[in-house]
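Hi R.,

Here's the chain you asked about this morning:
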Amino acid sequence: MEESSTLERLRQDARDELSALIELRCRLGEDPWVFLPDLPSVDEQVVATLREERMHSDEWGRARARAYHPAAHEGEVARFEYELLRGIALDHPDLSAAVWSVLDRVPTAW
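And the predicted structure, written out as tokens:
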């Protein structure tokens, strides 16, 4: 039960952030028909938040250090990001579509 309430809180935070961003960009005179398709979905925002939390957790610290080490092989960052996002998809099956959407959108290195 606690996990679902945390997920709902993250979704509400994402809705609030996206709403504020849309309002700001409209106030600045930007055309919403132009910028709205490029904004992440609420669930993609949640995935980004979960990714950031995991990225800086002790559990992922060693893997992160290896992946982002200057002497790391070229594909280490991509493999690290894939495993990080895969873990989110496994822990939160209802976010799976958003996880893979985020994975498709991100460059090799964040």
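The first helix runs from residue 2 to 27.

Let me know if you need anything else.
M.
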